[in-house]
Amino acid sequence: MTDTAAHGQTLRQLGPTVYLPSAVYSTGVGAVAPVVVLTATSLGASPAAAAVVAGLLGLGQISGSLPAGVLISRVGERRTMLTAAAFAVPALVACMLAPTVPLLGAAVVLLGVCSAAWALARHAYLTEAVRPELRARAMSTLGGVGRIGTFTGPFLGAGAMHFAGLDGAYLVAIAAVGLATVVLIVLPPVPHDRTPPAGAERPRLWAIIRANRRTLRTLGLGVLLVGALRASRQTIVPLWGASLGLEPATIGLIYGVSGGIDMLLFYPAGKLMDRYGRRAAAVPAMALLGLAHVLLPLAGSAAGLTAVALLMGVGNGLSAGLVMTLGADASPAAGRAEFLGAWRLCSDVGQGGGPLLIGAVTAAASLTAAAVAVGGGGLLAAFLLHRWIKPPSSYA
């Protein structure tokens, strides 16, 4: 690839070939995310069991990260995404037609595995295709279109459910996955900037993990906390609103406004990281998320909760693309896909553990204690990221 193509045209060129399929696929996943719980309860599951079934999507993402990295290394990103889509469609059909809760749970796990493979393939592809000086903007834009998809998906699913019941959301998701696949097949891919030599020996997964264990246990710990902070935000705002006795519609509006602020910041966040280094966005983002959680116990009304949720939205928006950018920066040229699979695993474990931490601390103490504990994790994440993120001169 020429310098002009890699530097001057990459982001525009990636629009239809990379970001469009990702946005469409994310819309499909977003359409069914809030419906899984309702499907489980319609099959007779208790609220607690339905919550567990919904959490299986995250379990599938966690279990799919490492295998997806190996598959990408063997067959390439494009074939991995096509494979993921090929399995996602029957998984969605199974969710829609599942006669029992265990079968629904198995289908949700498979859907999570497919989502992990798709997301990791996009991450690995951008790491190869985009030059380092544009990397953060490319990654934050990928994160941004994903957030737009998961934000708009539930609205499309809700519209379809007016005509087809719960099945409508799954039909929207099936159509979205199919459309993303068609776009992926029809449009030509952007060529990689760096291609491994033909016949080169591929390192084994565990050898890659061992060779990069210092990065994974230092910066990877910070990324784990980033995932936990992001996921806890999605859980604790509705819980706090419910504890205040707010109407579900009011809670949804507060959460939606926070998400809107989040989406507006994805490109500025990437530009900030590209221009001033990753710390310039990472440290303030985690500090703001941590501070917002610490301030949550002071929110005694809808207005107070809105202010805290907006602060969370700013912090989360500043972290758009952060995990993918740091992973791309740290990834080795040999065994890159395997490393990124392990890297994503760190983030996914955090995302799965954040809500569990809130539940455990709330059960043992109170929701206030949970908010403060998570807030402390945010401040720790800011410290660790400041300590371990490399200076801009090392990005390659």
From TrEMBL:
Reading the lineage from the top rank, the first entry is: Bacteria
Matching Gene3D superfamilies: MFS general substrate transporter like domains
Read off the SUPFAM superfamilies from this record.
Answer: MFS general substrate transporter (SSF103473)
Report keywords, A-Z: Cell membrane, Membrane, Transmembrane, Transmembrane helix, Transport
Where do the TM regions start and end?
Answer: 103-121, 142-163, 169-190, 211-229, 249-269, 281-314, 357-385
Q: Taking the first listed entry, what is the main subcellular location of this protein, grouped into a coarse class?
A: membrane
The record, for InterPro entries, names: MFS (IPR011701), MFS_dom (IPR020846), MFS_trans_sf (IPR036259), MFS_Transporters (IPR050171), Sugar_transporter_CS (IPR005829)
Q: Which stretches make up the Major facilitator superfamily (MFS) profile domain?
A: 14-394
> Per UniProt, what is the membrane topology?
Multi-pass membrane protein
Record localization: Cell membrane
The record ties this protein, via PANTHER family, to:
INTEGRAL MEMBRANE TRANSPORT PROTEIN, RESISTANCE PROTEIN MDTM, PUTATIVE-RELATED-RELATED
What's the protein name?
MFS transporter
Species of the source: Actinoplanes sandaracinus
Q: What is the lineage of its organism?
A: Bacteria, Bacillati, Actinomycetota, Actinomycetes, Micromonosporales
